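Input.
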Amino acid sequence: MRIASGALVLALAQLERGRGRGASPAARVITRAGWYSGSLLFAYAVAFSFAYVTLTAATGALILFAAVQATIIIGAIVAGERLRWMEWCGLGVAMAGLVYLTLPGLSAPPAAACALMLGAGVAWGLYTLRGRGSAAPLRDTSRNFACAVPPAVIVVLLAHSGLHVSGPGLGLAVASGTIASGIGYVVWYAALRGLTATRAAMAQLAVPVIAALGAVAFLAEPIGMRLVVSAGLILGGIGLAALRRAR
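Output.
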């Protein structure tokens, strides 16, 4: 439902935009590039979902973001991008903050779940690298979601015996697909056009901090000194690297 609702709202937005510009709404949706990026999007979503069945939040976040950072930075270096010393320092400070934030919840996780989360991180890293070349974020994200729907349906059919659907769960899945995923990923692809791969990688280190602050706001979880210190390290490291690149 998350992927399908995201695909639907993006298709409607693309259709409306095409009409507004006088373009034909029957533009090709399924392309080879769409299948490739859609497969990465699907791999990230399904691996992330099944991994978190048995992983704790702290362990999963640490594995996921470590894999994302490694994938993007390796891809950037292979593509010829070189980090300056201040960017290395900023990345190190930000990663230290991430470890400091998630380390207290670490335990010995199941190997299969770890492998799934590593796979999710690699998939999201590759998806991000592909997004840097997007000239039309809405169109490309719409194609990616459309191509991710068929394999998602196959997973649902294979797992039908364990399905459980409730009204609130369905509503949250649709909201996640239409707003957080569909519209959010369009914004992410648009932002990537102005970021180097390294800065895109470091910007995502802010996600665990944002998630923690969301838990404080919506779940009434207390703000501890650990959250304050780690948030300062992560955001400070991102700022340090961004300042060097801006100069």
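The chain has ten helices and no strands.
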